[in-house]
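F.,

This is the one I mentioned.
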């Protein structure tokens, strides 16, 4: 495109005979795309917040990317996943760049653990930090790659195992970073990334990085992102959970164990180790192990409000951990001619100390305190019960243009739920229709003969119904569950009975399971929450999505329980104001896996017939696209032409 690109406005790009129609070989005019692009353009121009629901197939990435580029402002684009982040940078931006006479100033940033630390790499040649032949082999791969890489982003190394322990010893995480004091600071990949960001108009990040940055903006160490005046959140329905993570507190036994190991490794490599230092570190490890063991060993998440009683019984063990952290930083402070790497270790000890004290104090009523146990890990968590006031103060009141978009923002046509949960006020709203003809492309089947999902008889009946559906569709399905236990039980019962390959979440990395599903004819994937969203399998390979139950959040989950209580205490109705809208958005996400293109066709099955028998079921129907609906399996057979 000529240098007049910025003057044509978004209508000149997206109109029936606009610029995109000339550029794209498979261009198809999408009224919703133009509508969304104009809404984004107007918000950026007038400095207003915007909530826009854009159905699958709208082309929403270009609908916000083009007006962001044309705005002349520095805009941060935050995505739900690193995959979408990379798609924007490596696919969409280069496509647009072909038609601009001047280079587009765009960069992407990931979290520090994605980047190599050159100083750690060089130190590893001299220090005994690598263990075993696998780590040594991975180190050699990383060492050769470092000589040619421009970015230091581990995603470039296709041959490096996802779970490489060597990488975790060489990455650029903040916990061991000396910043400007590092000998490699000028050559540091993070330094280059930050320089690129300061030179860019569009900065593409993911939600985790964005909120990590927002949570430390007022910290002594400052933020990660340069100043910006506008932000676009794609997959904005995830923001409450991500923000809660970064505005909360998390301290666990592995954090303290990793800290002790890092201090020990640095003491050996920099020759300031001593018998006293070893004794102090062993003492902290022992105290930590004893302390965290007091919280039990059962898996899962449980609320905790017994801090006072716990301290009355176990104060000595708690204070032993605090004293151990104090002893470590005291010993580090007296190291003669201490290397620069000691500074982040001192900071980490104090952070762990303060986090543990905050959690054990337990008096801040704005937080819910809970414990999560995974394997041998024990994590003490404190999560803000209400993130809306935090987001209003730190985001919506400070940034003049915040655009939130997703295929699932509205509930029964209203944005009230997301406004309330995220603290959005004075925002325009828009609902943009999808290009897909859902009533022709998909049938929603809700069997009426199954028992209530809370009945003991539901499991056997659901298994039989799933088997019938999978035989009709010849596999090619996702079977999605609201609990791991139900997923495993159904998989165990059906995997031997079915003639189709049965894949199970948890038996491999998420991306590997998806790839196996895509390339395995007639495969069936049994999965839970992480496959309800952000998964794209267009074509006949995915022709059926089965959901076992309406995806209401587990009411006993400590965070859900605390938020329900807050809604009730503020005079609201927790079910209709919080639990039902959240479930409607989740169901919409799950069903959104099926129809990904205009040629896709398939069956959506919800085995929970409360949606047709309870009054609240209408909220789900009013939130979903206009699928063809049936309660008759014969209608499903006719749709599939079996």
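My design for it:
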């Amino acid at each position: 495109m000529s240098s007049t690109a910025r003057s044509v406005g978004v209508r000149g790009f997206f109109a029936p005979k606009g610029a995109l129609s000339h550029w794209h070989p498979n261009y198809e005019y999408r009224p919703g795309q133009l509508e969304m692009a104009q809404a984004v353009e107007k918000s950026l121009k007038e400095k207003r917040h915007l909530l826009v629901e854009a159905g699958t197939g709208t082309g929403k990435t270009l609908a916000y990317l083009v007006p962001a580029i044309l705005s002349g402002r520095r805009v941060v684009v935050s995505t739900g996943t690193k995959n979408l982040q990379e798609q924007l940078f490596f696919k969409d931006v280069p496509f647009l760049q072909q038609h601009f006479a001047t280079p587009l100033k765009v960069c992407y940033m990931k979290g520090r653990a994605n980047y190599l630390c050159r100083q750690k790499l060089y130190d590893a040649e001299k220090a005994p930090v690598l263990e075993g032949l696998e780590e040594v082999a991975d180190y050699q791969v990383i060492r050769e790659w470092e000589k040619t890489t421009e970015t230091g982003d581990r995603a470039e190394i296709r041959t490096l195992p996802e779970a490489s322990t060597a990488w975790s010893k060489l990455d650029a995480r903040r916990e061991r970073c000396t910043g400007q004091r590092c000998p490699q600071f000028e050559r540091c990949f993070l330094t280059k990334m930050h320089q690129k960001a300061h030179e860019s108009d569009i900065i593409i990040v993911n939600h985790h990085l964005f909120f990590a940055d927002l949570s430390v903006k007022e910290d002594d160490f400052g933020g990660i992102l340069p100043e910006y005046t506008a932000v676009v959140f794609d997959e904005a329905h995830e923001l409450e959970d991500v923000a809660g993570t970064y505005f909360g507190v998390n301290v666990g036994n592995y954090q303290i164990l990793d800290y002790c190991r890092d201090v020990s490794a640095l003491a050996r490599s920099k020759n300031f180790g001593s018998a006293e230092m070893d004794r102090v570190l062993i003492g902290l490890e022992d105290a930590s192990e004893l302390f965290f063991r007091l919280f039990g060993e059962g898996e899962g998440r449980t609320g905790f409000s017994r801090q006072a009683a716990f301290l009355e019984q176990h104060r000595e063990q708690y204070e032993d951990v605090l004293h151990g952290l104090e002893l470590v930083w005291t010993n580090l402070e007296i190291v003669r001619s201490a290397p620069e790497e000691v500074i982040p270790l001192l900071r980490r000890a104090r952070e762990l100390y303060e986090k543990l004290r905050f959690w054990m104090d337990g008096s801040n009523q704005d937080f819910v305190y809970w414990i999560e146990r995974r394997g041998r890990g024990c994590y003490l968590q404190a999560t803000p019960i209400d993130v809306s006031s935090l987001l209003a103060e730190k985001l919506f009141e400070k940034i003049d243009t915040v655009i939130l978009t997703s295929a699932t923002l509205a509930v029964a046509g209203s944005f009230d739920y997301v406004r309330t949960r995220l603290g959005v006020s004075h925002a325009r709203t828009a609902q943009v229709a999808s290009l897909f003809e859902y009533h022709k492309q998909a049938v929603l089947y809700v069997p009426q003969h199954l028992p209530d999902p809370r009945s003991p008889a539901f499991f056997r009946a659901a298994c039989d119904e799933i088997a019938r559906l999978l035989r009709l569709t010849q596999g090619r399905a996702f079977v999605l569950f609201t609990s791991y236990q139900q997923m495993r039980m159904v998989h165990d019962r059906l995997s031997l009975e079915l003639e189709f390959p049965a894949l199970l979440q948890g038996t491999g990395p998420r991306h590997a399971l998806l790839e196996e599903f895509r390339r395995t004819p007639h495969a069936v994937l049994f999965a839970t929450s992480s496959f309800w969203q952000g998964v794209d399998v267009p074509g006949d390979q995915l022709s059926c999505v089965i959901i076992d139950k309406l995806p209401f959040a587990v009411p006993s989950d400590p965070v859900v329980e605390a938020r329900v209580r807050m809604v009730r205490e503020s005079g609201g109705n927790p079910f209709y104001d919080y639990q039902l809208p959240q479930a409607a958005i989740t169901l919409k996400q799950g069903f959104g896996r099926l129809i990904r293109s205009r040629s896709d066709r398939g069956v959506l099955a919800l085995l929970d017939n409360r949606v047709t028998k309870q009054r609240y079921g209408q909220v789900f129907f009013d939130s979903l696209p206009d699928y063809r609906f049936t309660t008759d399996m014969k209608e499903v057979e006719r749709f599939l032409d079996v």
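The longest helix spans residues 307-333.

Talk soon.
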